[in-house]
Amino acid sequence: MWAFSDFLKVMYLKDPVIRPLGELDSSTLQKLLPEIPLWVKNPDYDRVDWLNRFLGELWPYLDKAICNIIKETTKPMIDQYSAKYKIDAVEFECLTLGTLPPTFHGIKAFDTQESEIIIEPVLKWAGNPNILVSVKAYGLKATVQLVDLQVFAIARVTLKPLVPIFPCFSKIVVSLMEKPHIDFGLKLVGGDLMAIPGLYGFVQDLIKEEVAKLYLWPKFLEVPILDDSKVPLNKPVGMLQVSIKNCRNLKKADLMGKSDPYVKMSLGDGTLSKKTQRRMGTLNPDWDETHTLLVQNPDSQALELHIYDWEKISAHDLLGMQVIPLTKLTPDQLQTHTLNIRKTMDDNDPANQKPRGTITLDTLYKPFKDDEVIPEGDETEKPPEGTPQGGGCLVVTVHEAEDLEGRHHTNPFAKVLFKGIEHKTKPIKKNRDPKWPDGKFEYMCDEPPESGKIRVECWSKGSSMGLHPKELLGYVDINLADVVSNKRINQEYQLIDSKNGKVTVELQWLSG
């Protein structure tokens, strides 16, 4: 039997309020969905449910493999510190990562137009590991247990260089994009060490700082996959200067009107491409533009030229192409080419018999000196004796910025200005700490720019509705004298006209 009070509760009970998620404020959503994955909040991230299912099936085997790697990796360190601090023995009594695998909450991929693959996975792991380590010293034994491990990290994984040998990449390079969140329990002889006042926060901060020192970008962990002796290193061995002069008697892509042609040039798939300016309404365009491409293998690479008709809405129409193998170029000799434009590179294609116009260009291949090729990695070469003679290529890479401050919005892109030439990265939407994967630019110089400067500007793109114009978020002028003498500089700069903004720029000088 119900009590009278229960009857009154039923009589006055109100129906719950049901509202669409779109009408809820952000704070209510955060309470309802505290673990919203990044692929929901940020369209740049993709779902990876299939990867989590795959990882779940593979985890029992990965657990054993990772634990074996931990034992092999830590053994030299344990032996070193045991001898230093007179410890008798350090042993793993139990080592397992538990039954709960990590989960990926999203993944982002970058297109760098280089011979590499870059992805940024977001990893969360609330695991149940059981790691028991016993330490014997001075006749005493202590056992420490690690439990309840939680990790949150955003990593950048680079597979490079891509090579025609399975598994098709030479090494894996891993960096952390921000300091990881790490939480755990540490027990000693049945008691919780982390319960000691002040110790928990100290250990947390210490681990974060040490991990950040090792692997926080631009520092990295490099895992070799293939033997270097079997892999072509793909380091730049020279630069190709290409001067596009003109095209004559181009074939119209449209029935009505003329074309708006431009030329795209590269040294093959996966290499950085360059474009000329487009010329509006003409079939006989003149350019007189000079571009520089870095050469990695002159014996196998070829200069690929594609002439396009620019279209505002639809895809650009291909007007024709040509190819110049680098083996036909004489080093350090300026050569002029006037070539018939082809539809395809198939000699048996009947369409190549029809006239499609000509293209005229100059080429100059300048090999680098053997002792002036910049190696990969963070090693800095010693300054060469004397000033480099002749010209060279200045490579500018704008990696990232921090704490950018826009008045109306922050959709930042970087702009590099040097010798009247301007290059831009693509804007990153709604981000005060952008990372630009397309921030690498090259400038050909007739002589070392010892007294020159380069300007790097950070801008915020204007709103699409035109309510707010683009705005300058800060800039920095960098003297190039040190780059010429040291060959390479990778440095963070404070932005002028910005309260806290910083930008990280890498400069390389490759002399001819």
Automatic annotation (TrEMBL):
Q: Which GO terms describe its molecular function?
A: lipid binding; metal ion binding
InterPro entries associated with the record? C2_dom (IPR000008), C2_domain_sf (IPR035892), SMP_LBD (IPR031468), Synaptotagmin_plant (IPR045050), Synaptotagmin_SMP (IPR039010)
Provide the topology term for how it sits in the membrane.
Answer: Single-pass membrane protein
**C2 domain ranges (all copies):** 217-339, 375-493
Biological process terms from the Gene Ontology for this record are: lipid transport
Q: What is this protein called?
A: Uncharacterized protein
Predominantly, its location class is membrane
User: SUPFAM superfamilies given for it?
Assistant: C2 domain (Calcium/lipid-binding domain, CaLB)
Q: Where does the record place the SMP-LTD domain? A: 44-226
Location comes to:
Membrane
> What keywords is this UniProt entry annotated with?
Calcium, Lipid transport, Lipid-binding, Membrane, Metal-binding, Repeat, Transmembrane, Transmembrane helix, Transport
- Which Pfam families does the record associate with it? C2 (PF00168), SMP_LBD (PF17047)
Q: Name one GO cellular component term.
A: endoplasmic reticulum
**Is Calcium tagged as a keyword?**
yes
Which family does the UniProt entry place this protein in?
Belongs to the synaptotagmin family.
